[in-house]
């Protein structure tokens, strides 16, 4: 039985296959409309979500399947003190596949040891978010035509941003990738990711606090929200929350072929005026998230 806990649970070849299936779903949605008939997806969300949960649910409906689950810990038996392992063991009696989001790093991994059906990590604390990464890879592929020879800038909260961690880990396996890390000193990328992903794969990277100075180099700019819920005190959050605000002015020196991604939700870090710029693709990215999740569900359920 396959799970998706960490993006590296998938080989580069499997990611390629998922992207190819997502492309085919976009072209021929009717071919897929009955693929998961009588199958059930459970979404167990112990933390807030709009896109991730709803895109999983929309994905399952578009495959002809059904959905059950909860969207907050308070409405599940977690509120009575039930362990993640027991909750998942229970739900795996009702569902064929489970997507789970949890504030504790490693919870989906623990869940996978108790489950009788595939577990998908839909975000665990400040750690990983592999299905957002699949969304990001599909977006980059469709927008630029490639996943190699790219200079990718990550801007904002690189410390707590789980989508950043998983995407850097994934991109480190492609050739010709250069990473530019743009953050305040307090929100730098954790050392373990630099070691395990960047250094281990000889990926060149630079670190800076200045977005505008690196803007002309970038093929992709991946903006992120400062992750308020992971801070130990509100003062630090308030001091750091508006470190970067992308405006049309700041894009003056950017390449015409630049693509701006953001996993969303956006707070202040991209001004609304940027939305009109054709280089802004974060709402197209939302749409791609559903298709790649459809492809992933098919793969993990072993549906042809
Ligand atoms: C991200 C997440 O939950 O980590 N959102 C998402 O899944 N699209 C990013 C964020 O919350 O800032």
Give an overview of the whole structure.
By secondary structure, the protein is of the alpha/beta class. It folds into two domains: 135 residues, Aspartate/ornithine carbamoyltransferase (Rossmann fold, 3-Layer(aba) Sandwich); 156 residues, Aspartate/ornithine carbamoyltransferase (Rossmann fold), CATH 3.40.50.1370. The chain is 36% helix and 15% strand. It has ten helices and nine strands. The strands form two sheets. Strands 7-6-5-8-9 form a five-stranded parallel beta sheet, covered by helices on one side. Helix 2 packs across helix 10, helix 5 crosses helix 6 and helix 6 packs parallel to helix 7. It is globular, with a radius of gyration of 19 Å. Bound molecules: N-carbamoyl-L-aspartate. N-carbamoyl-L-aspartate binds next to helix 2 and helix 6.
